[in-house]
Amino acid sequence: MNILKIERMDFCYKQQFILKDFELSITEGSIYGLVGKPKSGKTTVLKLILGLLKSTSSRIYLKGQDLYDQRDKIQQMAGAIIDLPYYQNFLTVKENFKYIDMLFGFGDLRIAEILRFTGLTKHTNIKVKKLTMTQRKLLSIGLALFHNPDLLIFDDLLRGLDNDSKENVCKLLLKIKKRGKTIIMSNRSICDIEKVCTHIGLLEEGRISIEGSALEVRKELEQNLDYSEQRLYYSPIESKAIPTFSF
Ligand SMILES: Nc1ncnc2c1ncn2[C@@H]1O[C@H](COP(=O)(O)OP(=O)(O)OP(=O)(O)O)[C@@H](O)[C@H]1O
């Protein structure tokens, strides 16, 4: 069953078309990797899904329900990491969860459960600014998961991580999937995410050009692209550190 379905989505910034007749279906319980070259429109797709941008032409269905006039509903049912980290650097890990819990009121048991689930229990009382990049990513994921959403949307989650860290984060993604959640994650390259993604969709020229399992997408690419173009999708993303922000 589809948890999310997008039909005929067009989107442009000023005169520049980013998406044209874009269609996407995401199966419940899957990990969908939205892969594309820099500036191909991955973040734009994720923002449109979350209602942070609006396309007048499209229809977005969440669990079969048309979200056209009620985009705030998807924000309740989804947890996301887009653009900025959602934590506060000057607070400890636990204080960050307490802060977000002011919205939800789940209490300490939920905080302890998420700390355990993300492997952050022993860092409970450490300030975020002292955490490694991997621990901050785990914290971001924990904050996105906190209200127990069915759908998780992660933009460029693995960017800035070395290989070991990517593996740690991917292990957590698999744990999330095991709980029946659905994940949509964007990435520039296939190679970092092919082990975790059940589906991969290639975003090219405003629409999904190739879609399938990692193996199927690899086969299509081998048949349709020359070696240098294939490498674009298989070279690891750069592990250059990305800046962190505190609000
Ligand atoms: N607010 C904006 N105003 C105008 N153009 C924008 C805006 N945001 C993004 N764009 C343009 O839209 C295009 C798609 O951007 P987007 O960030 O969605 O791509 P992306 O695939 O996520 O890129 P990357 O892999 O580099 O993160 C780019 O050409 C970008 O410059």
Number of distinct helices: 8
Report the top-level CATH class.
Alpha Beta
CATH topology: Rossmann fold
Largest sheet at a glance?
Answer: 6 strands, mixed
Unreliable spans: 237-247
Q: Which cofactors or ions or other ligands sit in this model?
A: adenosine-5'-triphosphate
Termini Cα gap: 39 Å
Q: Care to give the gist of this entry?
A:
The protein is of the alpha/beta class and 247 residues long. The chain is 35% helix and 25% strand. The protein has helices at 42-50, 71-77, 93-104, 108-118, 133-145, 163-178, 214-224, 227-234; strands at residues 2-13, 16-27, 31-35, 59-62, 65-66, 78-81, 151-154, 182-187, 199-204, 207-212.
SSE blueprint and pairings:
Blueprint: E1 2-13, E2 16-27, E3 31-35, H1 42-50, E4 59-62, E5 65-66, H2 71-77, E6 78-81, H3 93-104, H4 108-118, H5 133-145, E7 151-154, H6 163-178, E8 182-187, E9 199-204, E10 207-212, H7 214-224, H8 227-234
Parallel strand pairs: 3-8, 3-9, 6-7, 7-8
Antiparallel strand pairs: 1-2, 1-4, 4-5, 9-10
Bound molecules: adenosine-5'-triphosphate.
Protein name: ABC-2 type transport system ATP-binding protein
Keywords: ATP-binding, Nucleotide-binding, Transport
GO molecular function: ATP binding; ATP hydrolysis activity
